[in-house]
Amino acid sequence: MRLFGTDGIRGRVNTHPMTPENALRVGMAAAIVLRKEQHGRNMVLIGKDTRLSGYMIESALTSGICSMGMNVTLVGPLPTPGIAYLTRTLRIDAGVVISASHNPFYDNGIKFFSHDGFKLPDEIEERIEELVRDNSLEHYRAKGEEVGKAHRLDDATGRYIEYVKSTLKKGVAFEGMKVVVDSANGAAYKTTPWVLRELGAEVISINDKPDGININDRCGSTHMDEIQKSVLRHKADIGIAHDGDADRTLLCDEKGRIIDGDQIMGICAVDMVSRGELRKNTVVSTVMSNLGLEKYLEKNSIKLLRTKVGDRYVVEKMLAGDYNLGGNSRAILYFLIIIRPATARSPPCRYSTS
């Protein structure tokens, strides 16, 4: 049975492969492979969402990585896009997110980013997986002063918030807007409300009190009823709902109507065309996007390219063809990125406000 799926390693906590013993071996194997691929500081950055089991998996991964002579920077709960961003800007060799995304609290997962903020190539994941299964893994352990260290980066959330704000043009502000944010008791419980308030919006924040087991529990982007009612009750202009690690975002308008990922991509594409910013008048999506999006884009002289399901395939197609808008939707937007012209290899800047 393969360890890595389309989005890292995932499973029920304390059941293979999501056990502390296996996480330890994954950390050890990843350190061996990544040390050979080093691009900077002999360092791995680890972030997570708010699941109870995050502490256990984080400790096991950290121990495994340090035992092989690599160092670890811990940032605590932070949206997945924030881990990608910090991995690149801090010139760290790899980033790790401990999260099972929109799954219940009793699941967890491990996914890796390379030094440039993108998912690890398949061949590197395969090398890590081979070493996890290798009985000689322990022979690679560091000795004496070669053992790695771990430390916490206290201002990780602030750094990411400043980056998110910097993606907006000067003068853009949200004064006069009322926004409801449902963070799913997950990784964005601080960042999204904070960003919006600093930009001048009035924010009603719901499901922002994580306790380790209430992540994604009848809330967030997989359960939109509460935010729809909250938008209507507070007469808000918009509702923003995330999942547990805030790499999915779903919106609702002032009437409480859900705006799904295909609709968001269509809106963004047409807007970008009007400003001359949509490269090659093309959007990259997957086979999951519906025919309605394709017809809408076609009506506006925009081409839709499809890939296999998975954000890594969308990114690969975007990089290969120099496109700057891509995404996917299964009623829920989980990936919508703009690669800015000035930094074509920058990690994803999602339209999500996480």
Layout of strands and helices, then pairs:
Layout: E1 9-12, H1 20-36, E2 43-48, H2 54-67, E3 71-77, H3 80-89, E4 94-98, E5 107-114, H4 122-132, E6 150-152, H5 156-166, E7 178-182, H6 191-198, E8 202-206, H7 225-234, E9 238-242, E10 249-252, E11 258-259, H8 261-274, E12 282-286, H9 291-299, E13 303-307, H10 311-321, E14 326-329, E15 333-338, E16 349-350
Parallel strand pairs: 2-3, 2-4, 3-6, 7-8, 7-9, 12-13
Antiparallel strand pairs: 1-5, 4-5, 9-10, 10-11, 14-15, 15-16
Summarize, please.
This protein is α/β, with parallel strands linked by helices and 354 residues long. The chain contains ten helices and 16 strands. Helix 1 packs across helix 4 (122-132).
Task: Supply the key terms.
globular, 354 residues, disordered C terminus, alpha/beta, 6-stranded mixed beta sheet, 10 helices
N-C termini distance: 34 Å
User: Which structural class fits the helix and strand makeup?
Assistant: alpha/beta
**Strand line-up across the major sheet:** 1-5-4-2-3-6
Shape: globular
Number of E strands: 16
**Radius of gyration of CA atoms, rounded to a whole number:** 20 Å
How many helix segments?
Answer: 10
User: What fraction, in percent, of the residue positions are helical?
Assistant: 25-40%
In words, what does this structure look like?
It is a single chain. The chain is α/β, with parallel strands linked by helices and 354 residues long. Helices cover 32% and strands 21% of the residues. The strands form 4 sheets. Strands 1-5-4-2-3-6 form a 6-stranded mixed β-sheet, sandwiched between helices. Helix 1 packs across helix 2 (54-67) and helix 1 (20-36) crosses helix 4. The chain starts with 8 loop residues before the first strand and ends with a strand. Mean pLDDT is 90; it is low at 331-354.
